[in-house]
């Protein structure tokens, strides 16, 4: 699963290709500037959610809000899709995505800190990979459907 991702690809020609693609497409100044309105919206949403929790509970657990904002930033930049965590129709798919991301991060930590149990890590990866592929395939199909309908798609 992770051998093809830029952070885990072995040093060599494939890694250099991924780095070139990232720097010329994902992290190009024009692309970063183009996503500024989305980052501003994520920040506004973060501040609103924090203020709402503060007024309701008196205290705020920032981790959840920061994770939601980071997830929205990543999803908006990579897939052109952001979530409104307060809406019920977005909340279900967002929770599914957040659970996959959490599992992925746990597995990343497991690779570094728990080399004694590679079988368990491999089994968890084997269960996560199809879920991630299904999610990404759904996003791609959504883009294709919108393209066929003539919708103006963001360049993500």
What report would you give on this structure?
It comes from Acorus calamus. One of its GO terms (molecular function) is monooxygenase activity. Its cofactor is heme. InterPro entries: Cyt_P450, Cyt_P450_sf, Cytochrome_P450_78A. This is Cytochrome P450 78A1. There is one protein chain. By secondary structure, the chain is mostly helical. The radius of gyration is 18 Å and the shape is globular. It is built from six helices and no strands. The chain has helices at residues 13-26, 29-34, 36-57, 62-79, 88-113, 118-148. Helix 3 (36-57) runs antiparallel to helix 4 and helix 5 (88-113) packs antiparallel against helix 6. Helix content is 75%, strand content 0%. The mean pLDDT is 82.
Q: Could you spell the SSE succession in H and E letters?
A: HHHHHH
> What is the approximate shape?
globular
The fraction of residues assigned to DSSP E strands is under 5%
Instruction: Give a short account of the largest sheet.
Output: none
Average pLDDT reading: 82
Helix content: over 70%
Secondary structure: number of strands? 0
Structural class: mainly alpha
Q: Please, how many helices? A: 6
How far apart are the first and last residues' alpha carbons, in Å? 23 Å
The whole-angstrom Rg is 18 Å
List low-confidence stretches: none
């Amino acid at each position: 699963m992770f051998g093809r991702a830029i952070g885990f690809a072995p040093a060599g020609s494939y890694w250099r290709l991924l780095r070139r693609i990232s720097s010329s497409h994902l992290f190009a100044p024009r692309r970063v500037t183009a996503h500024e309105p989305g980052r501003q919206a994520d920040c506004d949403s973060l501040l609103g959610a924090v203020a709402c929790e503060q007024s309701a509970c008196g205290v705020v657990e920032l981790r959840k809000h920061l994770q939601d904002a980071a997830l929205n930033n990543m999803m908006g930049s990579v897939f052109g899709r952001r979530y409104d965590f307060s809406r019920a129709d977005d909340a279900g798919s967002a929770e599914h995505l957040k659970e996959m991301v959490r599992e992925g991060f746990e597995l990343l930590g497991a690779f570094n800190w728990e080399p004694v149990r590679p079988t368990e890590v491999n089994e968890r990866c084997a269960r996560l990979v199809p879920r991630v592929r299904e999610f990404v395939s759904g996003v791609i199909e959504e883009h294709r459907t919108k393209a066929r309908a003539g919708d103006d798609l963001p360049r993500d």
